[in-house]
Amino acid sequence: MSSSPLIRTLDLEKTYVTETIETPALRGVSVELHTGEFTAVAGPSGSGKSTLLHLLGGLDRPTSGEIYLEDQPMSGLSKDQLSRLRLTSIGFVFQAYNLIPVLTVLENTAFVLELQGVVRGERMKRAKKILGELGIEQYADQYPHRISGGEQQRVAVARAVVSEPSIVLADEPTANLDTATSLDLIDLMRRLNAEKGATFFFATHDTRLLDRVNRLITLVDGRIAEDQTQTATS
Asked: Is residue 137 within 8 Å of residue 147, measured between CB atoms?
């Protein structure tokens, strides 16, 4: 694992403002994430875990504080620059899968590579390879609505890792899955972490996943209450 942080936040604050109400979501969060980690942030509903994930992914901007991705400050980046950063350096896995219904499994997996400008033959080759590694190559020509939720989430993971991003951010990736399917998905992501060195950061309340990460950060009322390494269960 690299000694230099992949992502570092400094006094991160996020407050959501309506016409009459200010709601603090994060209050002075400073944390470092390193290449190769398999980490989760947990906490009660409203603790700020999804907000932190969205800020790290450049999907939202902090009220104050700074985020550094590979020592590059994100605060000064334009919307276009943030979009490019997400495209090249960050993979996303969401609770709702977010697959494109009119594209096949293979086309969904290759979509990020298409946006990156990878030529068709190469991107399809890489997409087929990752589908094979994840055990879902038999669904390559199917459309998302023809496969199960667990299979769709595997496709979402394939899409997130196919371009070998610096980090994969996963927001409640197992929330819609039954226990057996969740454990299969978690084991799959752990294998990607162990064999490919893929870096994962989860926002989750799922104890099945929390028990299997190597580092657990706990947020309470927008602040880090605990940050501990642990021995993951097998």
From this structure: no
Spell out the residues 6+ positions from residue 150 whose beta carbon is closer than 8 angstroms to its own.
177, 178, 181, 184, 185
Residue 17 bridge partners (DSSP): 22
Q: How far is CA 48 from CA 25, 167, 224, in A?
A: 5, 20, 10
Q: In the chain, which residue ranges form alpha helices assigned H by DSSP? A: 49-56, 79-89, 105-115, 120-133, 149-161, 179-196, 207-210
Which one-letter DSSP state was computed for residue 137? Answer: G
Beta bridge partners of 38: 200
Indicate if the pLDDT at residue 2 is higher than 90.
no
Average pLDDT value for residue range 26-34: 96
Q: Record the tokens describing residue 233, joined without a space.
A: 């269960």
The pLDDT of residue 151? 94
Per-residue pLDDT tens for 194-218? Answer: 999 999 999 999 999 999 999 999 9
* Residues in CB range of 75: below 8 A, 6 or more apart: 61, 62, 66, 67
